Amino acid sequence: MKIQKAQSNIYADIGAKDAEGMLIKAKLALEIGEIIRHKKLSQMRAAALMGISQPKLSELLRGRFRAISEAKMMACLTRLGASVSIVVKYGNDKASIVEYERPRPAISSVRGRINVEDHSRQLREMELHER
Question: What is the pLDDT of residues 24-80, one digit of tens each?
């Protein structure tokens, strides 16, 4: 059996259609799960807060998220109390930050992957550092 080192996107490695979109969705689903665990919410309560059914949330948390859009997942995050920022950068131009929804009280990821409260500050620091 030949073992091959994976790239940074497992979906690209397996030849999945829309590999970049699937990776983004996987990261969003992971954050949704982390927030639910951090807040100690049941799936029923979390689903009600997010405006989706419990079975749909269960599927999302199990990695079956093809039927849910990235926009819906970002809306779910904001309904759970997180703020979501989209960074747009073209070439060497300065990055623009687009707020998906006005931030509510920020929540840090339990494992430290994303601290949504410090996200904008960190981007500004990185931008100043690049100059």
Answer: 899 999 999 999 999 999 999 999 999 999 999 999 999 998 889 999 999 999 999
The chain-wide mean pLDDT, for the chain, equals 76
User: What pTM did the predictor assign?
Assistant: 0.65
Alpha carbon 35 to its chain's center? 11
- The domains located in the chain, with CATH, are 10-130 (1.10.260.40)
Residues composing the chain = 131
What would you report as the CA-atom Rg of the chain, rounded to the nearest whole angstrom?
A: 16
